[in-house]
Amino acid sequence: MVETRIGIIGGSGLYKMDALKNIEEVQVQTPFGSPSDALILGTLEGTRVAFLARHGRNHTLLPSELPFRANIYAMKQLGVEYLISASAVGSLKEEVKPLDMVVPDQFIDRTKNRVSTFFGEGIVAHIAFGDPICKNLAVVVAEAIASQNLPDITVHRGGTYVCMEGPAFSTKAESNLYRSWGATVIGMTNLPEAKLAREAEIAYATLALVTDYDCWHPDHDNVTVDMVIANLQRNALNAQKVIQETVRRLSENPPSSDAHSALKHAILTNLDKAPTATKEKLGLLLKKYI
Ligand SMILES: CSC[C@H]1O[C@H](OP(=O)(O)O)[C@H](O)[C@@H]1O
Ligand SMILES: Nc1ncnc2[nH]cnc12
Prior knowledge:
The chain is 28% helix and 22% strand. By secondary structure, the chain is an alpha/beta fold. Strands 1, 2, 3, 4, 5, 6, 7, 8, 9, 10 and 11 form an 11-stranded mixed β-sheet that branches. A hairpin with a 2-residue loop joins strand 3 and strand 4. Adenine binds at residues 88-90, 164, 169, 186-188, 211-212, 214, 223, 228. It holds the Pfam family PNP_UDP_1. Phosphate binds at residues 12, 54-55, 87-88, 189. GO terms for molecular function: S-methyl-5-thioadenosine phosphorylase activity. Its EC number is 2.4.2.28.
């Protein structure tokens, strides 16, 4: 059921893409359960894409409750090879201001108790994750932002996204610790999402939409949901335009990606000796290697 090569996961405040045409809602079932919501197949800039509201269209799922494996596997089942992750983040740097956009190139995992792999049950794999974001896809996203010439909005290329567990926001001690590490932005959802995309050999890049200065900045109030949503609403149209331009560029010239062969040197178990049930469950991921 190859429907599209391009997937979009909309984060907080981005629960739909207004520009999507010829919409079809698809309830996708996966071996890892149901995704956060129906996948919305539609045409954007003449290209078929799959859109998923990360928290559900009514924002009913906490970061800790997200069915990360089902979300990524569902995208894989639809044929997705490039995944754009839109995410609301807090800024950890003075120069990264609310409403700016960041295309990170690194993550620090501060999540707890999240299942971060499709593997196990008799099949062991260790993907390379030194460069967790697809460099070539990240360039397309960054160029798409720059092309919009958004007034008073800066695009920051590169940077480190700290992924915390949540749902409570950070303490000042945590926020300043992350700043001392040189991290750029903070969110609650891009891991294990990016790890699972890599295991699924899907190129992944984040469009991080800065909504606040978290709780460290002496001249700004501590982050609240109201603050995040208000800034997301101010930036929602810009975010959709950026995603639309990214899709246009991707469909014109899909970049190569190391992610597309991520499992080639990662599977440790001799698949001839692996449990049949697990091979069937992971069939979509393993079909090139069996
Ligand atoms: C509403 S503020 C916290 C919430 O927003 C971000 O979600 P997403 O990454 O899906 O845009 C953050 O990760 C938290 O889930
Ligand atoms: N300050 C913050 N911390 C974690 N996730 C966020 N999403 C938006 N702002 C955030």
